[in-house]
Structures are given as C-alpha cells and as structure tokens.
Amino acid sequence: MRLFVYLPLLIPALTALAARPLAARLEPRQATWLLTTAAAILAGCAVAALALLTASAAAGLPALAALGHYSQPALRRADPVAAVTGLAATVLLAGAAVTAATGLRRRARALAESYRRAARLRADGGLVVMPGNAIEAYALPGWPGQIVVSAALLEALDDRQRAALLAHERAHLARRHHLFTTTAHLAAAACPLLLPLARAVDYTVERWADEDAARATGDRRLVAATIGHVALLTPPCRPRPATASLGAAGRPRRVSVAWAGPVPRRVAALLAPPPARHAVLVAAVVAAAALTGLSALEAARDLHALLEIARAAH
Amino acid sequence: MRGDGLDGSLPPGGGAGAPRRPAGALEAEVLAVLRAAGMPLTAGQVRQQLAAGQQAELSYSTVVTIVTRLHAKGLLAREQAGRGFAYTPIDEAGVAAGRMRQVLEAGRNRDAVLSRFASGLSGRDARLLRALLAAEPGDPGGEQE
C-alpha cells in the first residue's frame, strides 16, 4: 500500500486537464473510442484503489484480525496507510457507490424512455417531422432509432443542408453514440474527476457525426455552414456571466475557438482539413490507462502480501 | 407526470358572470380556436377569437395560463411575437414528439439520450461563429437572414 494505490486517484485528475485538448486534436472516431475506454478503465481503477485503501484500514481493526487469524500489530507495523486515510477512502467509496447507482438509474430510465418513445413514433424512413415553429433536430436512440426534426427547421434549410443534417443525425443512431456517452458519464458518476473526460466524449461524438455527414455529402464546408446556420436560428442559450462581461468590453481581438462552446469548435474543425490520426497522443492515453491499471494491480498485490506477512506473524 | 400537477391551478380569472367550466373544456376551446385559425395566434388574439365565437369572455391572464399550460404539455408550439408568444397547434405525431422531449427534459435526462444537431449559442459564441463563417469564401448557408 504505498505509492501505487494513490496513482489511480491521481491520474484521473491529470486527464481532466488533458481531456479537452485531446478531444480537439484526435480524429473523432478514434477519440471517442479512446476516451470512453480510458474513462471506464480509470473509473474502475479509482474505485478499486479506494476499495483497497478501505480494506487495508478495515484489516487494522482488531475484530477482523481475530476473525482472519492474522496478527494485527504486525499488519499495523507493515502498513503505512493511516487510519484517517482509510476513513477518507471509505467515505469516498461510499459516495462513489451512491453517485454511480444514481447515475446508472437515471441513464437507464432515460434510455428506456427513449426506446419506448422511438417505438411509438413509427415514422417513414426513421424521420419524424414535428410541426410547429421550434427549431429543433435530434436523434432519438431506439430500436430502430428515430430522427426528430421540426417542420420549421426543414423549411429553413435547402436540400443540401437537409441532407447534411440528416446524415449527421443518422450517424448518431448508426454508430450508437449514446452508448459511448452513457459509458463515459457513468464512469464520471463513479469518479467525478472524470467529468471533463465524459464531456469530451459528448463533444467527440458530435464531431464523429459531423465527419460522417461530411463524408456522406462530400462537402465539409456544407456541413460547417449548416451547423452554423441552424445554431444561429436556435434561440440563444442561457447567457454565461463570464462571456457576457467579455462581450461588454467589446475589444476587437483575434478570437480563438479553443475555449469556445462546442458549435464554433465543430464549425472550425470542419473548415479545417480532415483530422489526422495522432499516434503519439493515442500512445500517451493508452500508457496512462495502462499505468493506472498496473498501479491498481500492484496495490492489490501489496495488500495481499501484507496480509500474508501478518498471518505468518500470528 | 409533471404536467398533471398544474391541473387545477387555473386562476379564478373567468370574467364576472362567466359560468365556471372545467379546465379541460377551456383547453379544448383554445385548441379549437388555434386549429381553426391556420396561423400562429397570440394569447390576446386567442381571447378575441373566443369572444367573437360568443364564448363567455375570459380574462387575458386566464388565456395566457391556458396556452402556457398547453405549450408545457407539448400541444402547442410557440414563437416569439413582439414581447409575447404566438402559438400554433401541433398535430398528433408532433404531440408525441413534444411530450417525449418534455419527459426527457423534465428529468434532466436529455443529455443522456438526445443529441441535438446544434445547441443555442451564447452571445460570444454567436459572434465567433459569424466570424468563422464570414471568413469562408463561397459560404452557401451561413448568413442569409
């Protein structure tokens, strides 16, 4: 129980910093797979590390020592995990269990609801046109999934833009993007440090669908312009105080999309050349996940060895 | 269901002497007026139409309450008209889609399943987006309006 048990708790904190730059640079499909898998592994390891710390603290209890036929003083001497640390780990572990269970329930309900509704909305060609004046388009996961688009939005687009919009939504359904976002957000529910990673996955699935739409229509600029057009038609979202004050200053300066919302970043990415694969970045993420997994394993072996020593001393 | 909690919260706004009717009947009348109109109507216009149809006069706030509730139920779509909203009825498939969205939004669950094509923008993002699209030569659909 030395350094190794803390690494699975430290590495998710580092990914929080790396998530957004990674999502911006990696090819979207690769990024989605990589970041979702990494989130699942890191969450599993973080929970395992907390469980090991908790177990290690619990092993120090005299009652358990008597039950397990090992020497409690020998264990105490060999194990550097302080009682306070063990207690903190126990609290965090319980918290993780609660948030993960709540998150799982919420997501499962939303998905079940979506499947039910999609089954009820039997539409021609998987497209439901919602009358009215709202500007709205979304993919509804189901079996089969449905695409819901408002009549007002369809009217506001020309034939090519409509094709781009539908190709984007079809990609969401065909690639089962909701499974990636669900996995990533469940990982974040168990380990809140992974929330930036889960948000990055939300973004990369949009990018993935954008790139699919660009391939389907053969025109990246068309997809970019369609996203921009639709976003500007959509009523504005809640104003964010920080950005509002920036706007009030009104200084004309070169704006970067790096810290902008998802829509400008998606449009900028489509106006740029198609994304390339970055072997080095992929390797870095794989290495971080592998290091986390090995650390958790090593910590488990540490605890096992510790108990062996204590048992021998009994 | 959330919407059910609203029923019965109708303010006692029916004009003096108007016989009290169940909330459902008022909603049906408002829906009928909007369906017959064939164009978006504001709450004030709905009220005029109801009065023209020799229905008992309702207060403006009652009509606003009814259309707001119908909108919340996903039966009416609305658009900005001046300082208020103009409402249009939604047909059956649209009602189903609207209800579904309402249910998904109600539980903060929508992020779990719905992927919107493009979300609304903050003011800064909108400016940034316009700048990006304006910089593109031969942009087919950035800024037409």
Describe the secondary structure blueprint for this structure:
The complex is a heterodimer of chains A (314) and B (145).
Chain A (H helix, E strand, L loop, with lengths): L6 H19 L2 H32 L2 H7 L3 H7 L4 H38 L6 E4 L6 E4 L5 E5 H6 L2 H16 L2 H14 L4 H23 L2 H14 L7 H9 L12 H10 L7 H35 L1
Parallel strand pairs in A: 1-3
Antiparallel strand pairs in A: 2-3
Chain B lengths: L22 H15 L3 E2 H10 L7 H13 L3 E6 L2 E6 L2 H15 L3 H4 L1 E2 L6 H12 L11
Antiparallel strand pairs in B: 1-3, 2-3
Helix pairs in contact in B: 1-3, 2-3
Describe it:
- The complex is a heterodimer of chains A (314) and B (145).
- Chain A starts with 6 loop residues before the first helix and ends with a helix.
- In chain A, a hairpin with a 5-residue loop joins strand 2 and strand 3.
- In chain A, helix 1 packs antiparallel against helix 13, helix 7 packs across helix 10 (220-233) and helix 9 (195-217) packs across helix 12 (262-271).
- Chain A has 314 residues and is mostly helical.
- Chain A has helices at residues 7-25, 28-59, 62-68, 72-78, 83-120, 151-156, 159-174, 177-190, 195-217, 220-233, 241-249, 262-271, 279-313; strands at residues 127-130, 137-140, 146-150.
- Chain B has 145 residues and is mainly alpha-helical.
- Chain B is built from six helices and four strands.
- The longest helix of chain B is centred in the N-terminal third of the chain and has 15 residues, at 23-37.
- Strand 2 of chain A pairs antiparallel with strand 4 of chain B, so a sheet runs across the interface.
